Amino acid sequence: MENGEQNYFLGSIILRTVEKEADGSGLYDLVDGQQRITSLIILLAVMRDLLNNFDRNYAEQIQSLLYQKAAPLLGKKESFRLLVWEREQDFFKENILQEGKTLHDFNLKTLKDAKYKMVLAITIFKQKFINDNGEINKDLLFKMSYYVLNNCLFAYVKTGELTLAFRLFTVLNTRGLPLTASDLLKSYNLAAVPDDNRKKYAQIWENIEDELGKEELERLISFLRDIFIREKAKRTIFEEFEERVFASGVISKGEAFIKYLKNMADIYRERVQNAQISSTSNVYVRYYNLMSLMRDFIPSKDWMSAFLRFCEKFNNENKIMEFLQKIEKRYIVDWVLGFTPTQRLTIIYNIIRLINESTCEDEVINNSLFDTSAREKEFLSAIDSVDFYDKNYSKYVLLRIDLDLSENQNITKAYKGTITIEHILPRNPSHNEWLDLFDKQARSEWTNKIGNLILLSRRKNSSANNRPFLEKKKSYFGGSMTDFELTKEIDKYNKWDIQSIQDRQREMLRRAKKLWL
């Protein structure tokens, strides 16, 4: 507008025809362009309410674009031009589509997610029309209103086929956030639900989104892909569901899939996110602690797909705990031995196949797939390595051993906050005590070994790391600094020399063997 451009192109939008009237009007699903159209509607609503201070006719013209009044003589019902997600629709109607509502003072602190973003957009747009004196810039308001309504253009594509609309989206979408797998699967499956049930199943899906969160729902859908297909992905998640799950008859699209998704979402929320099982106190505590550790400290989450499939097929609480221990053992051994992500994923797919083919829990749990004893030598060699500290699994291994030391206390334990690995013998010692006890070769051999490492629950001043051992001990245990059983063990030592590290190294290897072999 400032550069005198005749038109401004807002990009392409993709519409799927839901209902079409003889006059060309109708009801459309907005497949691509949701953010831009919603932003444009909010801008128009703000300009409508500001214009009402100067020209009621202008304000009414804009309102007619946002809202169609009922006209019984013409056979027209009340109609809002844009319908957003059902859980946001009432808020959208009351605060944007209704006249005068954008002028209200909103408290952003009380809002979240989509409501927060809508009100933030209202606030930003209003500020653009207020000059330095706190008054409405009337000239800008009228010019912008005319320009937006007469010079801003969209190109649109209409199709009656949802699948074609999605394919067009992947080709034409060049701006804004891409649709996620859950977005695509939601529209695809709701389109397959009969009209009289669609609202019910839309609400079920939206409840899942609310309970899990969008990011976790995306993760769950990727796990379901693994459960159904059991091969490395070759196409997008949506395409694989469309072609290899729904088209092949593995599960029907629409109501059947949404029911399945809800069941798996319930399992995921209960067993993984909340780490809950109904069992004896001791089993519950051990399950909660191990699941919390695996969930939060194993970087890759692909093991969860096999775990969810086991929970879905076999709902025996005690056996779920046994299976979790088995899959943790196999996964950690593979991780420590340097299996690639692809190799680890292949093993997970084999476990899912095993679950599918088994008639009871014990057939799975006792299968040789979980036998790690044959790799004892190489596994312990990796744990014993001089560069253990530098491995991406070092913190998990230390935490798992610490958790095992805590199990006789029968209390839930979830590791939170900043957790660091501390070298007892410093990496770069400057104090004479350390230099006298460890020559250069000894420091090279023992500094980064597991026997020289402990866990701390907060970062310490790096200068303190080089202090003599007894002073370091005071910092470890002073001021309730540590809850780690692994670290508390150091209190029994009066000095830290090569013999101390060697003794602890042997003990840590014994513990690793007990846990994973």
Automatic annotation (TrEMBL):
Pfam families: GmrSD_C (PF07510), GmrSD_N (PF03235)
Domain GmrSD restriction endonucleases C-terminal: 375-510
Coiled coil: none
Residue ranges constituting the GmrSD restriction endonucleases N-terminal domain according to the UniProt record: 5-188
InterPro entries on file: GmrSD_C (IPR011089), GmrSD_N (IPR004919)
PANTHER family: DUF5655 DOMAIN-CONTAINING PROTEIN, SLL5132 PROTEIN
Protein name per its UniProtKB record: DUF262 domain-containing protein
